[in-house]
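Lab meeting, item 3. Inverse folding demo.
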């Protein structure tokens, strides 16, 4: 089963996450099919907090990929901000 989830990056005390499409059996930071965006939880000022390639997200959702709970809440947040 394909999952859209967060893969941890960044450094100590400065987390940074990539939104990735991967097989649900792979480790969190393991191999992935495609990176479709990023999430920066400690963004300040003019820094971008969340960026998602909507075209690729819609494609992966159409072929059956399931977002994780956290990714689903981020996508809802993104939709509210866009409206």
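The presenter then showed the designed sequence:
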């Amino acid at each position: 089963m394909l999952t859209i989830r967060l893969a941890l990056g960044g450094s100590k005390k400065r987390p940074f996450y990539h939104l990735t499409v991967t097989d649900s059996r792979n480790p969190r930071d393991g191999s992935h099919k495609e990176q479709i965006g990023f999430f920066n939880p400690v963004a300040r000022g003019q820094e971008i907090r969340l960026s998602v390639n909507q075209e690729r997200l819609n494609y992966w959702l159409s072929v059956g990929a399931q977002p994780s709970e956290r990714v689903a809440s981020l996508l809802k947040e993104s939709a509210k901000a866009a409206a």
